[in-house]
Design brief:
Layout: H1 3-11, H2 17-48, H3 52-55, H4 58-80
Length: 85
C-alpha cells in the first residue's frame, strides 16, 4: 500500500469554501477545548482535586490560565478567518 495518497488527505486543502470553513471550525473547536481544559485546571483544578495543590504552584496555575486565554484567542482568530459567501 502506498501511504502518499492516504496521507495527502490530512493536509490537502478542500476545493470548496464550505469544506475549508468546516476544517477551520474543527480546528477552532480543538483549540477552544484546549482553552477550556487549561483554564479549568488553572482556576479550579486544586479545589476539585486536592492532590494538585502540592504539584501546582501559583506560577504554574498562572501559566495554565495564560495558556488557556491564548488558546481561546487563537480559536477566535481561526474563526475570524472564515470565508464569506
Amino acid at each position: 500500500m502506498r501511504w502518499g495518497p492516504f496521507l495527502d488527505r490530512f493536509w490537502r486543502r478542500p476545493p470548496t469554501r464550505e469544506g475549508r470553513n468546516e476544517q477551520k471550525k474543527a480546528l477552532a473547536a480543538i483549540f477552544n477545548a484546549l482553552a477550556i481544559t487549561t483554564l479549568a485546571t488553572g482556576l479550579v483544578g486544586p479545589s476539585i482535586n486536592p492532590m494538585l495543590e502540592a504539584s501546582l504552584s501559583f506560577s504554574d496555575r498562572l501559566t495554565l490560565v495564560a495558556s488557556g486565554v491564548t488558546a481561546h484567542i487563537v480559536a477566535r482568530a481561526i474563526l475570524w478567518s472564515l470565508e464569506d459567501r
